[in-house]
Amino acid sequence: MEAKSILVGVGGGIAAYKSASLCSLLVKSGFDVQVLMTEHATRFIQPLTLQALTKHPVIFDTFAEPNPSEIAHIAVADRAKLFVIAPATANIIAKLAHGLADDMVTTTALAATCQTVVAPAMNVHMYEHPAVQENLEILKARGVIVLDPGEGPLACGYTGKGRMPEPEDIAAVITAILEQQQDLVGLHFVITAGPTIEDIDPVRYLTNRSSGKMGYALAKQAIARGAKVTLVSGPTNLPPVPGAKMVNIRSTEEMLQGVQAAMADADVLIAAAAPADYRPVEVFNHKWKKSDGLPNIVLEETPDILATVSRSRREGQTIVGFAAETRDALTFGRRKLESKGLDLIVVNDVSQPGVGFDVDTNQVVVISRNGEVDKLPLMTKANVADRILTRVKALRNSVGGGRTV
């Protein structure tokens, strides 16, 4: 194997067929891929398929030693730079958590010293079972990267959480781990994304046009650079970010609670969400009908997440805010930076084409508390996210974290 060698472990679940796409993507990205399978996995997809894609014999028999001069599961483990198990069934996850080794995948996992990535895939009730969740927490505590499964229709007929992450997303995480700089290792980022919803009645609500794309881009880039990420997300149409701890919320109050809980051991908060500023004082129990006349909707302010968290921050925590404006963007941005006690603020004028909500590009100005201004050109949100993270890293290096409290 070459330097960029990857082990792909395939468990015995219906999602095993997706391993072919994953292997193909990794090979096309220039990685040398060796596939390991459980015996049960071979019933879902033929080893010959994966052999043809990777140009390596697939190893699934623990007692078959193709090279008598070496022990297969030790040799491949020693050469690997990363071990991804996709799909990881409940059975495999339990074995990994408790050190059991009775197939080629789990035996090799015990011998591997490289970074391990696990992509769970199973029925929603199995995934939510306390034993499975406890096993996943054990793996996370050991430094295993556990990808969040997707949500949607499952092969068993249920709809819910348990879909194996898409091969493209898994490949992106792998590429990021092996090829990008890991300068945020050891830091815990809390990132907010998307809108919040404030109910008027069971049918109607107040919200805004935020798509969550900027916050999700920040989460992906932070993970790619080695950070631990908690993503507190309002309702969006975006898939979960692989590798992030997802905290899904609906209202501004719920977002505040999610952020406060995550900030207990966090180093950085990047508040990229657009929480609703107002909510109805009274929520109607039933849909308001036209025949009822014009409703009298009295509004009150929602909690100020940034101001609240900034007041209670621990020493060394860094807080970054966003300001989406339609006029006098820099003036309002600087005012928000000071009034909320932020370390950085990212300002954009959402009235400009290609900027702001529900597009894949953004043009921002990053202002720091010491007055430094960095005007970025129009670029993809992924690139904007990378530049913001670099500024956060530089700020923390220069002052040892956030403001002294």
Describe this structure in words.
The protein has 405 residues and is of the alpha/beta class. It folds into 2 domains: 5-179, 3-Layer(aba) Sandwich (Rossmann fold), CATH 3.40.50; 188-399, Rossmann fold. Helix content is 33%, strand content 22%. The protein has helices at residues 18-28, 47-54, 72-79, 90-98, 104-111, 124-128, 130-141, 167-179, 213-224, 252-262, 305-311, 329-339, 381-399; strands spanning 5-10, 32-37, 82-88, 115-120, 145-146, 150-153, 159-163, 188-193, 198-199, 205-206, 228-233, 245-248, 268-271, 278-280, 299-301, 318-325, 344-349, 361-362, 365-368, 373-375, 379-380. The strands form 6 sheets. It has an 8-stranded mixed β-sheet, sandwiched between helices. Strands 2-1-3-4-5 form a 5-stranded parallel β-sheet, sandwiched between helices. Helix 9 (213-224) packs across helix 13 (381-399).
Q: Could you give the topology of this structure?
A:
Blueprint: E1 5-10, H1 18-28, E2 32-37, H2 47-54, H3 72-79, E3 82-88, H4 90-98, H5 104-111, E4 115-120, H6 124-128, H7 130-141, E5 145-146, E6 150-153, E7 159-163, H8 167-179, E8 188-193, E9 198-199, E10 205-206, H9 213-224, E11 228-233, E12 245-248, H10 252-262, E13 268-271, E14 278-280, E15 299-301, H11 305-311, E16 318-325, H12 329-339, E17 344-349, E18 361-362, E19 365-368, E20 373-375, E21 379-380, H13 381-399
Parallel strand pairs: 1-2, 1-3, 3-4, 4-5, 8-11, 8-13, 11-12, 13-16, 16-17
Antiparallel strand pairs: 6-7, 9-10, 14-15, 17-19, 18-21, 19-20
Helix pairs in contact: 1-2, 1-8, 3-5, 4-7, 8-9, 9-13
